[in-house]
Amino acid sequence: MVVCSTIFDLKKKNYSEMATFIDALLPSVHDTLTLREALSKLAQCERSIKSNGVCSIIENFNIIYSCLCNVTDLKTETLDEIMKTLIKGLQLIESDLKKILSDKIPSETRIKYLNSLKILIYLTVEFSNFFEKKFLTSKENDLLTQTNNKKTTKKTTGSKKTHVDLSINESSSHFDWNDIKENVLACLANIVDLNIQKLWDPPIAEEQFVITITNLCYKLMETCQSNSIRPQQRKTIKDHLCHILAIMIKKYNHSYSACVMIVQTLPHYEHFSSIYADLIQTCVTRLGYESILPDILRELTHTNMSSGTGNKENPNIKFYSQFLIDLADRLAENFLPYLSMVQEFQDEESYLMRNSVLYIYGEILVKVLNKENVTDLKTKQARDELLDNLMEHIHDVNAVARSKTLQIWRRLSDENSIPLHYINELMKRCVGRMEDIASSVRKSAFQLLCDLIRTNPFGIKSVELSLQQIQSELVKEEEVLNNLNKESDKLIDELNSIVEPKNSEEMNEEESDEENSQSNQENEVELQAAKDKHQQLVVIQKSKVNYLKDMLSFVNQIETAIPKLSKLLFSKTQTDVLEVISFFVTCYEHGFTDMLFGIRKMLALIVNSEKTIKDAVINAYKRLYLKSESRHNPLQIAKHLLKLTEDLSICERGALEELIGEFVINGELEGSVIQIFWELFSDLEKPVQTRFHSILLLSMIIKKIPGKGRANIDVLIDYGLSSPKENQITDQEILIFSETCLALSNVTPDVSSKQLTQQDPTSVIKETSRKNKKNKDNDDADTSYVQPRLQFKNEPFKLVNTHQLFERLTEILTKEITSSKLTKWSCFMENAITCIIKLADNPILIIENIALKIIDKISPLKSLMTKSPPLFNEPTQDQTQLNDEIKTDSLLLSRYYSMIGVISSKLLVFLVQFVVCELKRRKMCKESQDNSKNSKNGSKNRRKSIRPNKSLNRQSLGGDANLEEDMGLQGAEAEDAELMFVESVIDQKVAVSQAKAGVFSLLATQLLGIIYILKEHAKFPDENLQLSCALALVRIMALSQKICNENLQLLFTLMEKSPNPKVRSQLIIGIGDLVYRFPNALEPWTSHLYLPLRDTKSNAVRMNTIRVLSHLILKEMIKTRGQIFEIALCTIDDDIQISSLSKLFFQELSQRNNGLVIYNAMPDIISQLSGGGGSASSSTNDEIYAARVITEESFRQIVTYLFTFIKRDKQCETLIEKLCHGFRQANITERKCRDLVFCLSKIQLSENGIKKLKETFKWYADKLIYPAVYDTFKQTILKNARKLPILKTETKALIDELEKQIDEIKQKGLTDDMKGNDESLNEDKESESDSENQPASGQVGKKQNNNNKKSTVRNQSVLKQSQKVNVNKKASCRSNTTRTRRKVVDSSSGEDDSSDNDGSMSDSE
């Protein structure tokens, strides 16, 4: 774009150019002076202007003009002097013009002042252009200098910004162009404000005069927002520029030129949009020139906004859209008459222009057409039209436009500018946008929904009433409305009955009785008044009904959004999760109690790995429960937290425990609130449910503050384990017992040997002092019992075996095991066993005592423990009696064996963790004491072998005290000496059944009864008993490797053939634990773990199996070879959860070793599944594990999903070669050929991959006779090859040649088919003649042989043709003939093929 300018090259300026601008000055222009003469007369010029007036500038023009011609050679002082002279001249002429323009001006005076004004304007503009140009140059140099200085010097000052001095003066700093510019613009603004058109005849200013001034203003606008200008001065300069241009637009006919200039120069500088908007505002508001707005809009509509390079958008559009937005901010009221012009931009392809138009609509609705200003019908229609446009653009094709529209609706909601009848439709569309594909749109939708809830237009009533209550109230109000309508109809009928007879009487009788006439008039007036009153009541009632309908729709939309929001609560997009959390909190704060469901769902996010999400959840709960209006009311906080614990699931309980722990650690849960929990728990008169929730929260608090529990052990025992008055324990009370046991267990924190060995004793003191200092001002925060770090000098907290706690637990366990009404006994039993093991000084004795007491109560147990192996042979009379007793006491037996399983697992944890940690702790104490003694004696520290302290009662465990001394372990092996010792004790004791072996022998002797019950399922069909025995078996096996090896076959048989799906489901989990415990023992049985994936009777079995296998494979406990295709089959399972878990497994597997794991498994998966394979079952139980037929569609779904993880070129090339090699299998079926070629079509081709297809053509050439194989190669594989982004000429020729070969083979196959058909007809005729002397069976056999011969001949001919086509390519392939033969991808290759895959991958990598 070329901008018209009056900045001339002064050295080349000639006489004719000057004459066009300045009249009557030709002689003086001819008399130009040298620079020395001009400088000598400059002072004379100044004195002349001051003494003789401003018109003397005409005689002295050649002096200043000569300086202008040599301006580059002038010094700064001279320039400063000239500018002061010019400014003084402008001020003088301004004052003179004010006087002379008020009256009629003589012709000579007019011409004199006009020439003087032209000269001053011309000289001022030219010098200003020079200064501005030099200003920009000096600014660039200064910025370049600053950049270089930053690289070489260090910053010595703080963050305080300094003003950039861009003064033009080289010697002094008193000359500031910004100050001079401000004065020049002020003088120009004052002059153009005057009616100077009178100086021209006719009174119209010259175009050149207007252009000279306006071009200077446009030039100065480029730098008016420069950082070198002071902020206040920046605003002043901008105001002067806008004022001058506005005057020129209105008074000097500059409107059209200004519109063109604005549109053309908008894209040049980003700040132009705001400055030009200020200019338009000045014209409209200060000068009242409103026609500039439609002119500028019209000019914008004529601008081509769709032209861009290529498919890119026009880069200038963003400047135009921003300009419209700035105009809307300043002149929203003035846009209303010109909406038709604005709507033209709404049809633009660019979303930026649509956004600017929508923004204009929003500003008009907020500032002009809001609720208060809308009175007449026409204005309402205009408002509704704009709202409808905004509503439609919620579904705009562009995500940015959708998001911007929702933000505009937010603005309308904040300004209360949305009519009531638009709320429900807006809510509906907003809820729909929550499922938008763009996260920015979803975020805006969340925020808009929260704003609508905050500014709830239906008041508190919509919050207090439920959906059903609103519906019932709506029905009542509709009935009232119907009754009012009926009454109104009656009144209308009565009124009509009076009016019609009156009219008929007037027609028949001219004179009527005055009394009758008066009574009729009174009745008519009364009926009319009643009618009007009823009509008012109807209108009011209609508004009530409509209000309730809108309220019902509003609440219904919120409830509809809850399920969608619950799904997004676990979205992978972080903004979605944060906005959903904010939504639930907002709704709950504003009284929507139904959001408690969402608040509860948020608990699961407390364990999220993203710190931002976790902090957001914690802050949300703080905001709801700790920092609400009731924050100073501890009782209210306690009630809210108690309500949160209602109906907790297992996952929600763990999350709530983490949340309470965060509150406790940070000291945000006040001590007064915790005291309320203790009071509620210890008050036996309170409801059982309240006490249960109180002890639940106390248990979570004690876990973080163990000192709280230790100080209140007696309170926990007296009130948590007390017998009820009725002496009959209920399920709710047994839950209180269970939670009390859990709270008591938390008194002793879980120990770990790693934490123990890594502990720095001094860190505990530092951390405690730091926390105390942090919370010294918080009196309510209880930090006295904060759990310290583990120190090896601290002995674990233990209670003697004769403590009342253990006596009470023994009494409850042995007494209530026989209570059939208690359904929560197992939960209490598990927590009670945990409590005993963690707190008792010698828990083994207490557990043995409890078990023996229960055995005395259950008579069949003694028989099961003492019977010999003949028990499993032919049944005797005693055995029959025993079976009857077991059937009778199945509940007691299931509870007992469940307890045995719990004892086994808890005892294992106790020995492996606590005992090992205690041995190490005592060893560290002894070493510390020895080191302190050696340091006092001055001896050197010596490294000693690690030996567990003998103070631990190893004889109670049955071990040899000198065992470790004999081992002589040192170094790294010594670290696990204690663990090895404990393992040896377990193996020695659990695997024997001696009478005095204690609880270990007790567990071992239970195996006889457990195995007997599991084997005789038909005699003991109780599902709970079978499940308890199965779990007990797995847990006892986890104790000893010897017992594990002896019972593995039984365990896997039960897992495969048990008719109870619960047993099969739980055993697969137990076997997964055994794999971790004894991986070497379970390794031969790995293949059996995949069989439950084919369980057709229970989804839970398949679900647990896929979870266990995924965990074991990802943790590298088992290898992926062999049967991973079973997991691949689960990706198309009918159960959505199973298919999702399977796909998630492959996603995680693809991230291991750069995808090599899936790559190595792909040949095996394809081999097993192609051709309908993978349906064979290794189990004889066909009722559970039915054979599965893999359809072609299922195979394609699986392969399509798995090939998304194969992306590396090397992997794709190797797979192409393996798949092509698969066509060489003997007796390959057409179905398998179709499957293999489909796999080829799903591989990402590269140039090397195309070469592989060409090199291996002879392997699949004879399979092209199948139409599906040919079509896939022709229509899919070759087409994909041609679509590669960059193809070399050689590769294109290779593709053409391969396509030609494929076509030739196909054509040859069709020709052979036709010949084969003719031969078959002749052979059939011969066979018919020969078959007359042959039996029927012989005919069939001969016909089959003939068909086989024909097909063999056809295949041989096709193979010969393929060899003939490739004869010219043999020379190029000889270098590859030494390639080692790949093994065929076949189901029979199994593990050998997998090992070959590994080797091939290592070579390719």
Automatic annotation (TrEMBL):
One of its GO terms (molecular function) is histone binding. Residues 506-516 have a biased composition (Acidic residues). Residues 79-258 form the Condensin complex subunit 1 N-terminal domain. One of its GO terms (cellular component) is condensin complex. Residues 460-494 form a coiled coil. Residues 1063-1241 form the Condensin complex subunit 1 C-terminal domain. Residues 767-778, 1309-1324 have a biased composition (Basic and acidic residues). One of its GO terms (biological process) is mitotic chromosome condensation. Its main location: nucleus. Regulatory subunit of the condensin complex, a complex required for conversion of interphase chromatin into mitotic-like condense chromosomes. The condensin complex probably introduces positive supercoils into relaxed DNA in the presence of type I topoisomerases and converts nicked DNA into positive knotted forms in the presence of type II topoisomerases. Belongs to the CND1 (condensin subunit 1) family. This is Condensin complex subunit 1.
